[in-house]
Amino acid sequence: MLFNHLPLTPIELVAENIDGRRVYPVPSGGKYPSITTVLSCNPEKKAGIMKWRKRIGEEKANQISTRAASRGTTYHSIVEDYLNNTYDETKFKDKHLPLMMFKNSKKTLDRINNIYAQEAALYSDNLEIAGRVDCIAEFDGELSIIDFKTSAEEKKLEWIQDYLIQETAYACMLYERYKIKVNKIVTIIACESGDTQVFVETPKKIYLQKLIGYIDEYKKTYE
Predict the structure, then answer these.
(1) CATH hierarchy code of domain 16-222
(2) Rounded to whole angstroms, how far apart are CA atoms 171 and 182?
(3) pLDDT value at position 43?
(4) For a FRET experiment, which of 3, 78, 173, 214 has its CA 20 to 30 Å from that of 29?
(5) Among the residues of 92-189, which ranges form H helices?
């Protein structure tokens, strides 16, 4: 299918790296941390990752993390091309796993249309955060923040709370910058099993409250 595009005027932001943290200089003059950087500063999340790395060993943990990052990056590239109507399978012919995961998720991706932006920069002066949203488009006919993920196995809703917080952050940034309101946040997870999970939520107040807590924790640590 061919996807219709309704492009927003893009925001130009260039990320910088400061001591391993991604920050974005913004027009107001500040440097705002990326939402992914803010989420990674959560003490419980840090402790969980350290416990996991200790349990399986640093070498194996690094291998798994590198593999997951490569899989996710390639899958995102394929999806971006597909939604941009520029998909060429030969470009990814050697990327067997991400290509298989994409093909298994095409039916879900075809529920997207009227695309406003992909990999678009957003920021909020109110929250003092920034980032790049995967996709702003209609999903099943309703304007949504859409996030694409990959996973070795299926996930439960309680395991993806940070995804929902991140998507809520993008919804806040979108409204602040463009005065466009979305009532739906969509997480699409392509799994190595061949399944594609779809979690459809709303940007609830509890996600915003948790986001503000993460931001406060980040500021205590780095400011």
Answers:
(1) 3.90.320
(2) 6
(3) 65
(4) 214
(5) 96-109, 161-178
Instruction: Single out the residue of 95, 99, 174 nearest to residue 133, CA to CA.
Output: 174
Domain ranges for the chain, please list them: 16-222
Other C-beta atoms closer than 10 Å to the C-beta of 83 total: 21
Q: What is the pLDDT of residue 63?
A: 79
For residue 205, the SS3 value is helix
| pLDDT tens-place string over residues 103-120 | 999 999 999 999 999 999
Q: For residues 203 and 212, is the Cβ–Cβ distance under 8 A?
A: no
State the Cα–Cα distance between residues 57 and 62, nearest whole angstrom. 9
Please name which of 115, 201, 194 lies closest in space to residue 166, comparing C-alpha atoms.
Answer: 201
Q: Is the pLDDT of residue 192 over 80?
A: yes
* Structure-token match 């640590």, residue found: 221
Mean pLDDT score of the chain? 92
Q: Choose among 126, 122, 129: nearest CA to 145.
A: 122
- Distance, in Å, from the CA atom of 53 to the CA atom of 36, rounded to the nearest integer, reads 20
